[in-house]
Amino acid sequence: MKEKIEINKRVGATIAKYRKVSGLSQAQVAELLGLSNDAISRMERGTIALNVERLYEFAQLFQCRVSDLIADSQLQPTEQVYQLDRLFNQLNSVERDKLISLIEQIIEWKNSGKNYRTFSG
């Protein structure tokens, strides 16, 4: 039973992080999902267990996968990682490839020790 409570808390904390990264308040999420503010607060605190249908609704709202919401607590990404993931998922495969290439170029340039002003991207 204790393990189930911990899982609910971890999932709730993950939902809260995704909500914050999305720039939404609990009230806005509640309105979008047709729930009360109190229900969203209790879900984020882990005092309400979420069913698969509700997890799917959150995943759609935050533009992520259900598996992202129930990921292992050992792998707690920063809010920036959540934001990057959300933005990355808005790109098509060609755009994703171009973005990855650009990031690789930036890292290569950074590791070369050149001045910021010399990067041409």
Question: What is the fold's blueprint, element by element?
Answer:
Blueprint: H1 2-21, H2 26-33, H3 37-45, H4 52-62, H5 66-69, H6 79-88, H7 93-112
Tell me about this structure.
- The chain is an all-alpha fold and 121 residues long.
- The chain has a domain of 71 residues: 434 Repressor (Amino-terminal Domain) (Orthogonal Bundle), CATH 1.10.260.
- Helix 1 crosses helix 3 and helix 1 crosses helix 6.
- The radius of gyration is 18 Å and the shape is elongated.
- The N and C termini lie far apart (53 Å).
- The model has no long low-confidence stretch (mean pLDDT 85).
What's the quick description here?
This protein is mainly alpha-helical and 121 residues long.
Task: Write a concise keyword list for the protein shown above.
mainly alpha; single chain; 434 Repressor (Amino-terminal Domain); 121 residues; Lambda_DNA-bd_dom_sf; 7 helices; XRE family transcriptional regulator; DNA binding
What's the end-to-end separation, in Å?
53 Å
- Share of helix, binned: 55-70%
CATH superfamily of the domain at 2-72: lambda repressor-like DNA-binding domains
What would CATH call the architecture of the domain at 2-72? Orthogonal Bundle
Q: Helical stretch count?
A: 7
> Main β-sheet, in a few words?
none
**Portion in beta strands:** under 5%
Q: Oligomer, anyone?
A: single chain
CATH class of the domain at 2-72: Mainly Alpha
Order of helices and strands: HHHHHHH
Q: Work out the number of β strands.
A: 0
